[in-house]
Design a protein that fits this description.
Shape: elongated
Strand order of the largest sheet: 3-6-1-7
Distance between the termini: 32 Å
Low-confidence stretches: none
Structural class: alpha+beta
CATH class of the domain at 34-81 and 91-137: Alpha Beta
Number of helices: 2
Order of helices and strands: EEHEEEEHE
Mean pLDDT: 94
Strand content: 25-35%
């Protein structure tokens, strides 16, 4: 799974924006490496294990012929308190890392395979993520 080698702060403050009314992303919105890409339509926090699960299924589909690029990196720590623990007594311990995806962000890119294989790989990868996605191609 992806996680940063070193972080300046173990715990981040919670962002209080409403994710349903999230603005569109301004960076990482165009295809840079491959011919086909998976683009986010909604906003969500994608955890590192979800990225890894999507990467595995996409890599398995495109086989050794194609190439896959991951355009997001989980650098935001998320915390959780143990089950059945009362309110108060401070913030929970860091559990892992996530990436805050906004609409318009390119998540994966694929190249070196046919259009049908690329679309199938990206479709399968999109089902593993907590965001609605769309498959786009380089024009």
């Amino acid at each position: 799974m992806l996680f940063p080698k070193k972080v300046k702060f173990r715990k981040w403050q919670t962002d209080r924006r409403d994710m349903s009314k999230a603005p569109h992303d301004t960076r990482g919105t165009t295809i840079a490496f491959g011919s086909y890409a998976l683009k986010a339509e909604t906003a969500a926090r994608v955890r590192s294990n979800q990225i890894e699960s999507a990467r595995k299924v996409a890599t398995r589909t495109i086989t050794k012929v194609g190439r896959l690029w991951i355009r997001i990196f989980p650098d935001r720590p998320f915390t959780a308190k143990p089950a059945e623990v009362g309110m108060g007594k401070g913030k929970g311990d860091p559990q892992g890392y996530c990436f805050e995806v906004l609409p318009g962000r390119i998540i994966f890119e694929v190249d070196g395979v046919t259009e049908e294989v690329a679309r199938e790989a990206l479709r399968k990868a999109g089902t593993k993520l907590p965001v609605k996605t769309r498959i786009i191609s380089r024009q």
